[in-house]
Amino acid sequence: MSAPAQPEWLVQTEVFDGPLDLLLYLVRREGVDLRALPVARVADAYLAYLDKMRDLHLGVAGEYLVMAATLVWLKSLELLPRKPTLHEEEEEEGEDPREALARRLREYAQYREAADELDTRPRVGRDVFVRDPTEVEGEQRPVEAGIDAFGLLDLYYELITREAEPEPEYSVDTRTLSLEEACRFVLGTLSGGRGELSALLSVLPTRRERILTFVAVLEMVRLGWVGLEQDEHLGPVQVEGKVSADVDLSRVMGRVEAATA
Amino acid sequence: MSDNILPFPGNEPPDGLIAALEALLFASGAPVTEKQLAEVLDVELATVRAGLSALSRACEDRGVELAEIAGGWQFRTRPEHADAILKLLDQRPARLSRAALEVLAVVAYRQPVTRSEIDELRGVDSGGVLRTLLGRGLLRAAGRKDEPGRPLMYATTRAFLELFALSDLRDLPTLREREELEED
Amino acid sequence: MSDNILPFPGNEPPDGLIAALEALLFASGAPVTEKQLAEVLDVELATVRAGLSALSRACEDRGVELAEIAGGWQFRTRPEHADAILKLLDQRPARLSRAALEVLAVVAYRQPVTRSEIDELRGVDSGGVLRTLLGRGLLRAAGRKDEPGRPLMYATTRAFLELFALSDLRDLPTLREREELEED
Asked: Cβ distance C38 to C44 under 8 Å?
């Protein structure tokens, strides 16, 4: 099958965040009431949607299939004639499974709305800005961790998984790594010699810094400050420093400003 | 002196106090409680409150405003200047994915809550999102649930309140209200 | 328009501009040049200058003032508030350093553990940090290890649990739980 140009609805599939999200979208598209969910109609729309995804060879995650199976079962319940005694039995056995699904969907819709509402609040870094807290040193002040128990575990994990490799001589203040600093870090680590790109990046703690440093390497290739070499397809990439770390970095920043202007 | 009676004739605290409050809140950056301000300035709580209220009024036409955040007071820029500030700082607006907002909403209203409760509510695995939010300090591990397997529970942090300009978790609209809206 | 002539009748720039300048200088923290401000706000340099001058005058009775530093402009608190500010900042809890957090992490997950075991995992000497943490009551000596030299072993304290809002050491998340969150 030839790859089709992405139709509009396909773009939509990619943003669904789980079966409830998809189901809620379909319920709203069909314009049906969440309090009296017509299961058969919603199930048909849901299955048709999954079929479309399958036709396009899109992987359908397991949780979507579980929901599909549930919907088919609920639909079959709806199609069966109701026994007059069913009502009492249901009361004994608990909630009608169709009502349970509708309730779950209503509950999910509530949190979706709560999320939307959170999103409309003035947010630091998007709508409003604050000053960085002033830090002072003091021996007798009470301390705060600044991280939770998970942060502690992350630090421990970093320590026990860190390979027994020598510390890079160049230390980076990773909290404020700029493109300029990333360049200086790379040049400083190489100090005119060669190094493996993956090793250079692996000492950086976060994905963002690794990406930034990767961009810095590309930028410096363009400027002729470093060279890249790869002996074989998918083999390790060697970086060779061609200038020292005290090169005038304003050229890097100038480029970036021009590129983003 | 009672906290309910303004300590100044004509309800106006002295300019010196207002200026001192402004300097303190400016220097701190992070929210400062009324109690801390009263201690540092060695004045009554009521005096601080009157001063904050006057400072807040004085900020009406300014580029910054006084906001009640996480139980304290903090200066923040007004939203209408966001574009210019982002341009000056050469930053993109901080983004949160829809999944991240959903997980935050679930935890904010249900805390402390286990991962499987979050997954169940959202109908989808939330592990990766949860991890990102823990890493950003917006959520924290908050003990274990007393049930088989003793799963970890999660709660929102002070940074969560600060990020979304909440003075308190009670500042969030209740889900019940929303339910009523839907019935209309 | 010449830079030397004020662009507004009556020498008063619009309030909106002054507020925008205030927001920009507040959010930046570092000094901002007139040129940067003009670019970001897309106005003439003369307009920025007039705005800064009006803003500076408006600050006369405030706790902060506009100062020209390193070729740019920056808000600073007025000197008379320095004592109060230092008092406030000194009351605020200090953040533990990364080194301190690393040592706490190792002790939390390996306790009881000797100093040489901590040093080995961290790859650096931890003596100074360890002493500080013992002094702060976050760690304690917990017997001696049965090996040559009988080195001291360390463990976490009640204060450690409180700092991380844990009721029990068993509340610490496990490596396995961490891995489960990695899955997406």
From this structure: yes
Domain boundary among B64, B87, B110: B87
DSSP type of residue B60 = T
Kindly state whether residues B123 and B167 are assigned to the same domain.
yes
Question: Which one of B63, B87, B111 terminates a domain?
Answer: B87
Tell me what ipTM this predicted complex has: 0.82
User: pTM value?
Assistant: 0.72
Distance CA B74, CA B33 (A): 9
> Which of C12, C22, C28, C56 is the best residue to mutate to test the B interface, defined by the most B CB atoms within 10 Å of its own CB?
C22
Answer yes or no: do B76 and B115 share one domain.
no
Same domain as B65, residue B46: yes
Contact C171/A149, CB-based, under 8 Å?
yes
Cβ separation C27–A129 shorter than 8 A: yes
Question: CB under 8 Å to A130, separation ≥6 — which residues?
Answer: A124, B29, B30, B74, B75, B76, B77, B162, C27
The residue segments making up the domain with residue B110 are 98-183
What secondary structure does DSSP assign to B113-143, as a single string?
EEHHHHHHHHTS--HHHHHHHHHTTSEEEEE
The dihedral built from the CA positions of residue C110, C112, C116 and C119, taken in this order, carries a sign that is positive
Based on the fold, state whether residues B29 and B71 are members of the same structural domain: yes
In chain B, residues 156-175 whose CB comes closer than 8 Å to chain C? none
Residue of C nearest to B150 (CA): C171
**pLDDT tens profile A172-207:** 444 556 778 888 888 888 877 888 887 777 777 777
C93 interface with A at CB cutoff 8 Å: yes
Please state the domain count of chain B. 2
Instruction: Give the CATH number for residue B141.
Output: 1.10.10.10
The Cα A179–Cα A192 span in angstroms is: 19
Q: Are C140 and C134 in contact, with CB atoms under 8 Å apart?
A: yes
